[in-house]
Each structure stands twice: as structure tokens, then as C-alpha cells.
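queue> holo job accepted (pyridoxal-5'-phosphate)
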Amino acid sequence: MDSEQFRDAAKGAIDEIATYYDNIADKSVLPSVTPGYLRKLIPESAPEEGESWETIQSDIDRVVMPGLTHWQSPKFMAFFPCNSSFPAMLGDMYSGAFNAAAFNWICSPAITELETVVMDWVAKLIGLPDAFLSQGEGGGIIQGTASEVIVTALVAARERVIRRRLSDMPEGEEKLDAAADLRGKLVAMGSEHAHSSTQKAAIIAGTRFRTISAPADNGFSVSAASLRKTIQECEAKGLIPFYFTATLGSTSTCAVDDLAGIAELAKEYPDIWIHVDAAYAGSALVCPEYQHHCPPIAHFDSFNFNLHKWLLVNFDCSAFFIKRRKDLIDTYSITPSYLRNEFTESGLVTDYRDWQIPLGRRFRSLKVWFVLRSYGVKGLQAFIRKHIALGEYFAFQLKTRQDLFQVTTDAAFGLVTFQVKPAPPSPSGGQADRPNPRHEAWTSDFTPSGEAQWREDCNAVTKKVYEKINSQGEFYISSSVVCGIYIIRIVSANTAAEEKYLQMVFERLVEAAEEERGGKA
Ligand code: PLP
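queue> job finished
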């Protein structure tokens, strides 16, 4: 393809993409294909001769479209959103065009310098404490995903605690043995509701992992007292807690750990690296009414949130902020001769390869820059507030049918979780000893065995309703289990989200709940 052909092809592709977005609400959000569908549609191996763009492009409709789950559809309400925007797509297009692997400053100064400045913009936008700005000892870097960030932080935490504990020992075999011995005792920690990425990071780092209890009666959030208890239990066994992921917006319910209490506790344990994972909910910090979460973060080591979830920057874009960039550089900076250059030696430039696991890196700041400038702070705030309001609207809807639904966690950052109540006992149905499921608060007033049975029934009917909605393919919702409670999660927070779609999914839920409970209540 030459540049002239590229011009034509790109125009056609953009036209097709714009049409896709114009019509996205009409598509069934979930595909109806069966596993392995795609292999049957394309040849077993790559073509010998190159094909025309027309032939290739036509396969978007024939091969790709039938198997797409439409994350940008307003009927997508599962997991967390993965938002896109046209300015971000343009940023990705330029990034693809320049296609540089900017690991060292000199490999493309614009890529490094724009990232540094734009990450400062983002830090200010979300009200992060100044310690995370690049003008001081901190700074921000864009990573692919929150999981990558957490591995990067956790491994750096592991190396930091070892460096600190063995700082008096001379280099040599004895120090290596001592480090190996320490590594075997290290414990990473996270809420029982922390995203699985923390446990995965501990596996990658070869450390132990302990969950901290975050019970329902504490809003599924980790308290400082329960973190302290786990730390003390570890220490009593001769283990060394060295890392904790505090969650700001847990995956299942958007719970926020007690950041203020944990910040106080952190002062007693300076060797424990505390990372705040705000993968989804962090975007809400663009609104001043959410920035009360920020001051405690000044006492922690690092913070991340995914602009690709809720802040209109296309996947992938996870912002990772660090209070002392030296903590990363001390772990990740290895400079073989082939990477040496006068600018690195001068100490005046940032080489982001020293802050991350991979060497090469894409020009991701461009799409962030485009989004921040296209929407402006006010536009981003309006975008977030719209979804917060949609969450509240949906929680309100559920509460209009308290005979059918029990809200488990009220709207938080746009996410609502709930259960379907089981059918009431029929007077002649042999269920007379069962508690009344129309009960408002299912955690009180029941006998212990009645409550256990009710919970079980509640979980079963909730799961059935959840499965029914997704099997219909029109809407995509997700579920989770927290502290033994099976919940349906609804979050409608992409660009196309509108109240009318929440009204529609609510009607489907009512129908499904009534059916599963055996006829209209
Ligand atoms: N942390 C939290 C709280 C999440 O909800 C998620 C995903 O939803 C992640 C981490 C992992 O995100 P990523 O896909 O960017 O690794």
C-alpha cells in the first residue's frame, strides 16, 4: 500500500468507523457466535500473494463484526466500561504513524517530554498531592494496564525492602544469600476484594500473598484495624509484610478502603509500600466533590487509574504515579553499553525504560493530550457526573420494586449492585417456616437458619436472573460474589449511555425476576 492508496483506504475506514458508532445502539451487544466460529471463516494460513484493501476491509463485516462484543454500546453495562473517543482514536492513529519505541529520551524526545507534562496535567486534574508531580521527586508514567502497574510497583517494593534491610552489608555472596532468605519471608497484602492483579503480581514476584478481611458490615472496605491485624499476624510468624494494595473503587462493588486510617497506620510501617489501585473509580477524581479521597494518598508510595476505563482514552492507558521515582529507578535501571548515550549520562533527561518492565514503549500520551484538550476539565467533569447520576437513577429504580430487588451496595461511582429476592412463601406451599422475603433488611430479624436459607435462595434466583439477561444478548451485565453474596452489577458509563437504556434493562430485570420467581408477584 503506498501513501496514495493509504489516503483512500484510511478515508474509507474512518467512514466505516463513524457509521459503526452512529448505529451502535441498534446492535445486539453480545454476539451469538459459538467458540471457534472464526477459524472456519478464514484460510488456514496467510495468503501467498498480497490482497487488495477492498478484499481485506470487507472481512471486517464478514469475519470480525459477528464475533464482536460491543463495549461502546449503551447496552453494555458489564464489568467496568472501556471508553473510547474520537480524539483518542486520532491520537492512536498518529502514534501508529510515528511508531517509535521511545525507551530512552533520545529515542524520541517529544514522546518522553509530552508524557511527563501530560502526566503532570493528569495529576493536577485529579487532585493528586503535589508529591506525585515530576517537578519534585515523583512523576507519572503511562503503562498498558493496572495489572502491569501493580506488578511494577510490587516488584519495586520487594527490591526496596531488601535494599533497605541489607544496606549495611557489603556486596557479595553473603548478601545474595541474605536477600534470598528475606525474599522467602515477604508478604504482599490486599483486600479480599482487591482485584486479582495484586495476587497475580505476588505470584510473578515470588512472594507470599495475604488477603485482608473487608466484611459486608464495613461496606466491603478494608479498615486500618484489619490491616494492622494481618501485619501483626505476619510479623508474629517471622514474616515481613512489604506491600499493600489499597483499593479506591473495588471491582465488585466500588468499595473504598479506609485511606485516611491506613495513611495513619503507614507512618508506623515505612517499609510497607502502599499502592492505591483506583483503576476505574480514579477517573471520578476529576470532580472536586470526589477529591476528598486524595489527601491521604500523600502518605502512600504510588497510585494508578485507567484512563481507558472511564476517562475517554482508548485502551490501553493506565496512569501510574509514583512519589519517589528513585524507588522505581533503583530497581529497573540497568544500562548495558548498547543503551548508553550522552543524554542519559548527563542525568538531565528521563529514560522511561528505567521506570517500567518492558524496554520499548508507545506514544500513548498523545491520545491523552488530545482528550484533555478536546473535552477540557469541564467536559470531563460533565462526562463523569452524567454516569454518577445514571447510577443513582438506576438504584432509585430498583428501590421502587423492593418486593423484587434488594440493593446490596448503593450507587457508587456509577455502579449499583443488587440481589433478586426469592419468591414469597406460599401459604400452602410447605414454606411456612421460611422468613418473609419481602423483608426490607435481610440481614436482620431472621433466625440464623432462616437467614442462611434465605441467602441461599436469594443467591440462586439472582444468578438465574443474571444468566437470563445475558442469554437474551440485548444487554450485557456482570455478576460477582462478595462475602458469600451473589450480586448483579450494573454500570452504565460509556459515551453512549443514557437513562432510557437503564430503564430498558430495568424492565428486562423485572420481567426476568418475575418469571424466575414463578409468575407475577
Ligand atoms: N484493579 C481494579 C480495581 C479493577 O477493577 C481492574 C479491572 O477491572 C484492574 C485492577 C485490572 O485492570 P487492567 O485490565 O487494566 O489490568
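queue> The radius of gyration is 26 Å.
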